[in-house]
Amino acid sequence: MENAAPIDWISNLPDELLCYILSLLPTKLAFSTTVLSKRWTPLSKLLTALYFNDESVKDKDAFLRFCSFVNTATVSAELIKTFHLNCDSSHWQLDGRSDNINNWIQTAKRHPLENLHLHSSIGYLNETITLPPTIFTFSKLVVLKVKTFCLDGDISVDLPSLKTLHLNDVYFKNHENFKKFIHGCPILEDLNITHVCYITQDKSSTMNTGDFKSLSKLIRANILDSDVPVTAVYNVQILKLWVDRKLPEQVIIPNNRRFQNLIHLELFTIASEYCEDLMGLLQNCPKLQSLTIAVLLDKDLFKNWKYPITVPNCISSHLRSCTLRFDAFEVDLRLATYILKYAPLLEVLKFTMFDALQLRENQNRRCCLGRALLRSTPSQHWSENPAAATEIESSREMAKSSGNTCISD
Question: Higher model confidence: residue 278 or residue 108?
Answer without folding.
Answer: 108
